[in-house]
Amino acid sequence: MSRADRFLRALRGEPVDTTPIWIMRQAGRYLPEYRATRERAGDFLTLCKTPELACEVTMQPIERLGVDAAILFSDILIPIEKMGVPLTFAEGEGPRLEPVRSDAGIALLRVPDVEAELPYVLEGIRLVRRALDGKVPLIGFAGAPFTLLTYVVEGQTGKAFTETKKLLFGAPASAHRLLRKITDTTIAYLSAQIRAGAQVVQLFDSWVGQLAPEDFREFAAPYVKECIDRLKPLGAPIIYFANDGASLLKDAATLGADALGVDWRVPLDEARARTGGQVTLQGNLDPCVLFAPIPVIERRAADVLARAGRDRHVFNLGHGIQPPTPPEHAEALVEIVHRLGKR
Amino acid sequence: MSRADRFLRALRGEPVDTTPIWIMRQAGRYLPEYRATRERAGDFLTLCKTPELACEVTMQPIERLGVDAAILFSDILIPIEKMGVPLTFAEGEGPRLEPVRSDAGIALLRVPDVEAELPYVLEGIRLVRRALDGKVPLIGFAGAPFTLLTYVVEGQTGKAFTETKKLLFGAPASAHRLLRKITDTTIAYLSAQIRAGAQVVQLFDSWVGQLAPEDFREFAAPYVKECIDRLKPLGAPIIYFANDGASLLKDAATLGADALGVDWRVPLDEARARTGGQVTLQGNLDPCVLFAPIPVIERRAADVLARAGRDRHVFNLGHGIQPPTPPEHAEALVEIVHRLGKR
Fold first, then answer.
1. Angstrom distance (rounded) from CA B108 to CA B31
2. Per-residue confidence of chain A (343 residues) as pLDDT tens digits?
């Protein structure tokens, strides 16, 4: 047992030498070397679409932090652009898309040919696998269908999600048509990532916490389940992260994922009680705890480890690491988890 | 039993003729008559600070919707300005404050003399009580201490709440000093509202859902409890709304509030199970369900009523009514709740 396999073993519920850890957005703005590469790239989308640069930033935290998994640097909206929704990132403003809300607009969207239209993502995966050389596994990822729908419909990161909910509650058949196309795209996209070398995939449902459980069961869960059912035969473990999903955890545990991401709002012992114990839990330190002095980080990490128990746990933050985080605090967290998690 | 007392009776756990309902932000932008008064006022803060205008918009939904309570039109940041934090509202941008993050800045904040410095709020309450003439009770309100802290520290509506959490996790003693002053202000502010005629008060903890339960217990719950303990002797029932607080409900139920607001994420039967049944629950239809056709609204409202059970329930949305809501859908909701809720 070693660094190379503890993440995969924890996902499969097998014994590990210590608790594996990776960090959402571990390749990101809190790292000066990331900011340097980003500067060279010029803009965010160029960074995502240039395999050499994406590989470079993906690799940056691997040695520096000592994490047990790499995750391809990319953005969940990358495949959406190829469905026919023009996408830009204004500096410091987040994504802007031309919103699609009408049946006519939805009818025009298409399921892209991933190999032909998103070759840079697959090439990025191949480059990272080569660079990793078996050191740690590589995670591929996609947005979950409901979350991608919010971007398509809102045209940006939602606030009150009124356009999304106008569609869901006012024209549910249209919402389902849109979710159908997004789901087909997501399945094709993740299948191609696995074929290119992604050893694990994570579905990020960043905005699903906006849904009441009843609406989760109608507009989110069936599509996540379909992704999982279709990807399972390819053999890569699947992680589903329903952000802000305290009320959705029990349902989420029935969708067939190998692991569930849990944000910092639900203590992992409670999450374990609600999810039954047959699924690995991934999380869940509040990312902002990394602003605290290292002894506080250690106390809080120890609490997460104690609540998670020894089996079926992958340590992570409960959300992406924040740009103002001191990199040495992220390094300290990895050291702490490996030390305290030792079996 | 009648419209005049069913809200207060439900808060006290007494039998009612039908389920009472009011709607968060019932005096708001979805109403053309509100937009007209707002236009006349010129800007948002003037509307809040002019008792005659605040009274006018407070009264607008009372007859139109047939709700069972009025809530004074104001903003949770009004008392913060008088603590010494300059406040503006840029059109369509939300509040902007001069952020206070340092010990020196916190030391300069003061607890305002409510009668002398916020007379327009108290005069607004007196005007509304006169205009209501006993038709329905009047709710006063304040932001809960943690939520007000986020505005003081962020200087605006938070997104990732990184400045807030830098303070909480990096300088907890400073956070507690700030919470101390905000709590003293909130107690003075709500006491004065009750003395001026508010018959019920609600504490809005809009951003408390950003906290893990452990941090809720340190930085939010004790101050809410202190507000409740100090206000209880004045006799007005107290409602505590911990927005996005699925994981906090159980703790929130121990703070002594007569009622807990519940957002739409937690079905009320689950909320009831977690809160024990000795507290009234207020909520919790997703506000965006009001975008749907009326038969859908009826089906969803019936579900909320069924889950809530017959006792200790005040119907409300799970969050403020959204500006794009058709007013006639809000009217329909009130009619539906009164009809289906009939004992």
1. 40
2. 689 999 999 999 999 999 999 999 999 999 999 999 999 999 999 999 999 999 999 999 999 999 999 999 999 999 999 999 999 998 778 999 999 999 999 999 999 999 999 999 999 999 999 999 999 999 999 999 999 999 999 999 998 999 999 999 999 999 999 999 999 999 999 999 999 999 999 999 999 999 999 999 999 999 999 999 999 999 999 999 999 999 999 999 999 999 999 999 999 999 999 999 899 999 999 999 999 999 999 999 999 999 999 999 999 999 999 999 999 999 999 999 999 999 9
Residues with Cβ within 8 Å of residue A332, at least 6 apart in sequence:
A294, A297, A298
Q: Which residues of A touch B213 (CB under 8 A)?
A: 265, 267
Cβ distance B322 to A270 less than 8 Å, yes or no, reads no
Distance CA B279, CA B263 (A): 16
Cβ pair A267:B170 closer than 8 A: no
Domain count, chain A: 1
Total length of chain B: 343
Q: What are phi and psi of B305, to 5 degrees?
A: -60, -40
Rounded Cα–Cα distance for residues B289 and B325 (Å): 9
Q: Does B1 map to a domain?
A: no
ipTM of the complex: 0.95
The minimum CA-CA distance between A132 and chain B, rounded to whole Å, is 32
The reply to whether B94 falls in a domain is yes
CATH number of the domain that residue B50 is part of: 3.20.20.210
Q: Quick check: is B201 in a domain?
A: yes
Alpha helix ranges (H) inside chain B: 6-12, 32-41, 44-49, 51-65, 78-82, 103-108, 114-117, 119-132, 145-154, 162-170, 172-196, 213-219, 221-231, 249-252, 268-275, 294-308, 327-340
**Joined tokens for residue A297:** 């980080």
Q: B172-196 and B221-231 helices cross at what angle (nearest 10)?
A: 30
Instruction: Collect all residues with Cβ–Cβ distance below 8 Å to B130 and sequence separation of at least 6.
Output: none
A1 within some domain: no
CA distance A251 to B270: 14
**Size of chain A, expressed as the number of residues it contains:** 343
A151 among known catalytic residues: yes
Domain coverage including residue A281 = 6-340
Q: What are phi and psi of B63, to 5 degrees?
A: -80, -40
- The answer to whether B267 contacts A213, with C-beta atoms less than 8 Å apart, is yes
Whole-structure pTM value: 0.97
- Pairs across A and B, CB distance < 8 A: 88
A335 to chain B, closest Cα gap in Å: 20
Task: Tell me if residue A9 is catalytic.
Answer: no
Q: What stretch of H or E contains B204?
A: strand B200-205
Alpha-carbon distance of A193 to A196, in angstroms, equals: 5
Catalytic, B25? Answer: yes
Q: In what order do the strands lie in the sheet with A138-143?
A: A70-71, A138-143, A200-205, A238-242, A259-261, A280-285, A313-317
B240 tagged catalytic: no
Rounded distance, CA A319 to CA A284, Å? 8
Tokens of A259: 């692991």
Distance from CA of A90 to the nearest CA of B (A): 18
